[in-house]
Amino acid sequence: MDVLSDVIAVMRTGEPRSALVEWPVPWGQWFRTVPGAAGFQIVLRGPCWFIPEDGAPFPLAVGDVVFLPHESRHGLADAPSTPVADHVCDPQEDVRFERRYAAAPAGRARAGSPVTVTLCGAYQLDAARAHPLLNDLPPLLHLPARPGHHPRLRAAVDLLRAELEEPQPGTGALVPALLDTLLLYILRAWLADQPVGGGATGWAAALADPAISAALEAIHRDPAHPWSVAGLGAHAGLSRAAFSRRFTALVGRPPLTYLTWWRLTTAMRLLRDSDAPLSVVAGQVGYGSEFAFANAFKREFDLAPGRYRRDSRSSGRPNLDATDMMI
Question: Which of 56, 118, 122, 189 is most exposed, with the fewest beta carbons within 10 Å of its own?
Fold first, then answer.
C-alpha cells in the first residue's frame, strides 16, 4: 500500500461510526472526549458555530468540515451567545439514539422553525500503533467549503449523507467504507493545503518532497526488502549523506530507525489480524529468523510478539459508536 493508506490501516481499529443529526434552533452542546478516538463534524444545513475548549468560537458555513485527530473536547451551537449544554443527549441511555448509522433528531422543531443539520463521525485509533503522520496533525483541521475546492472530499460527503438519509440494502457495508474514504480525503485535503518549501518540516513536507516521498513509498511497499541508507538514497535519487540528512529533517527520525519502526508496526498488525506463525510474520517484515524478530519486537514494544498476539485478542476492544464522541 502507499504511505497514506498504511497510516489508516495501521491505526484504525473497530468499526467507524457516523450519525446524521438535526438540531432545532436554538441549540448548543459540548461533545465529550473519548480516549483514542478521532472525529469529524460537517455542517449540512443551518447556522453553526464551533466552540473550542480553549479559544474563541468561530462560524462554520454549510459544507465546512472540521476534523479532530486527537482527543479534543469541543462544542457546537447555532450562535456564540447560545448556552452550551453538557450531554443533552446520551446515546447510551436515550432511546432516540439506537445503535444505527442515522440518528434521530436531537429535539423537536416547531413547524417552519430553523434547523441545523450536522454529519458527525468517529474513528477508533490504536494508540499503540500511532503513526507519526497523525501525531504531526494540529488539534483541529478546518476545511472550509469553497466552490471547486477538494471536489472528491465533497463527493464523499454527499455519498455518505445520501446513505444516512435514505438507508437501502447494502448501507451497512457502504457506510464504513465511505467513512474510511472520507478520512483519507480529509487527510489528502489537509496535506494538499499545506505550504511547501521555505524550510518546512514534518510529514506534510516529507510527502510533498519527491525524493523523500519515493523512499517512504518504497519502505511501505516492501518492508521486507533489505534496505540500506545507500539503497534508499539511490531510490530517491540522492547521495547517501544528502538523503539521510533530508529524510531525518523531514520525517523526524533517521531512515533505518523509521524502517525498523515501520517493520515492527506492520508486524503488530499481522499478529493482531492474522494467524500466521511468528516465523512467517518475521519473514514478511524483513527478519531472517523468528529469534531476531522476537528480540527486535521486544526491544521496541517491551513485549514478546506471542504475548502481544494473545493480549490483543483477549482484550476484546469494543467498537466505537460515533455518538459516544460526537453527540
Answer: 56
Name the grid cell of 195. 505550504
**Distance in angstroms (rounded) separating the CA atoms of residues 325 and 327:** 6
d(CA 226, CA 288): 10
Distances, alpha carbon 272 to alpha carbons 93, 237, 267, 293, 315, in Å:
32, 36, 8, 16, 11
3-state helix, strand, coil in the chain (%, to 5): 45, 20, 40
Kindly write down the DSSP assignment for every residue of 177-228, as one continuous string: HHHHHHHHHHHHHHHHHS---TT--SHHHHHHSHHHHHHHHHHHH-TTS---
First to last CA, the chain: 34
Tens digit of pLDDT for each residue in 211-248?
999 999 999 999 999 999 999 999 999 999 999 999 99
Residue 167 grid cell: 438507508
Percent share of the chain, pLDDT over 90: 47
State the helix-helix crossing angle for 305-314 and 255-273, rounded to 10 degrees. 50
Spatial CB neighbours of 301, under 8 Å, sequence gap ≥ 6: 128, 264, 268, 308
Distance CA 18, CA 119 (A): 7
Enter the C-alpha cell of residue 279.
516465523
Tens digit of each residue's pLDDT (9 = 90 or more) over 82-100: 998 876 444 444 443 344 4
Residue 203 pLDDT greater than 60, yes or no:
yes
Residue linked to cell 525498523: 260
On the question of pLDDT at 105 being above 60, the answer is: no
In this predicted structure, the answer to whether residue 67 has a pLDDT above a threshold of 90 is: yes
